[in-house]
Design brief:
155 residues; single chain; mainly alpha
Length: 155
């Protein structure tokens, strides 16, 4: 009974902190998405009509690409946790992983082709090129901000 008195508050604290961390991560993801939308919209100077057609296509593409990347990462993490796993793996198992990753990358390539064919219907080619530059610029800015933030936290 005496232990229960200590376990219950600790368990509550653990659950609360875990929930808080997940919500904070979601809030950060939402802020990054909002910043990305604002950054890309500003860089492309999208008209209202272009924006209405562009964002659903862009968001669907981004979600699919995120799923492909996550699938590849989870497969590799699950099957090849470290090099010792790789050493004990059979050639057939290794082949299956390589084939799976190759097929996934082919799907990614096909999705990119579909995505660009959709973009060509709603945006001029210059804006499609600006989009590529804006995405790289956004990633660069995001990493710079993260680096600055981590430096401040270390001090």
């Amino acid at each position: 009974m005496n232990r229960l008195k200590y376990i219950l508050p600790l368990l509550t604290l653990f659950i609360f902190s875990n929930t808080y961390a997940q919500k904070r991560k979601e809030m950060n993801n939402d802020r990054v998405k909002a910043y990305k939308i604002a950054y890309i919209t500003n860089q492309l100077s999208l008209t209202e009509k272009e924006a209405q057609k562009f964002w659903p296509i862009y968001n669907a593409h981004e979600e699919l690409m995120r799923k492909f990347r996550a699938e590849e990462r989870s497969t590799i993490k699950r099957d090849i946790a470290d090099t010792s796993n790789l050493e004990s793996m059979s050639e057939t198992e290794a082949k299956n992983i390589v084939v799976f990753v190759s097929e996934l990358r082919n799907k990614t390539h096909k999705e990119n082709e579909t995505y660009f064919s959709k973009l060509k219907k709603i945006l001029p080619y210059k804006k499609i090129l600006k989009l590529q530059i804006a995405e790289r610029g956004f990633k660069k800015r995001l990493f710079e901000n993260l680096r600055k933030k981590s430096k401040k936290e270390k001090k």
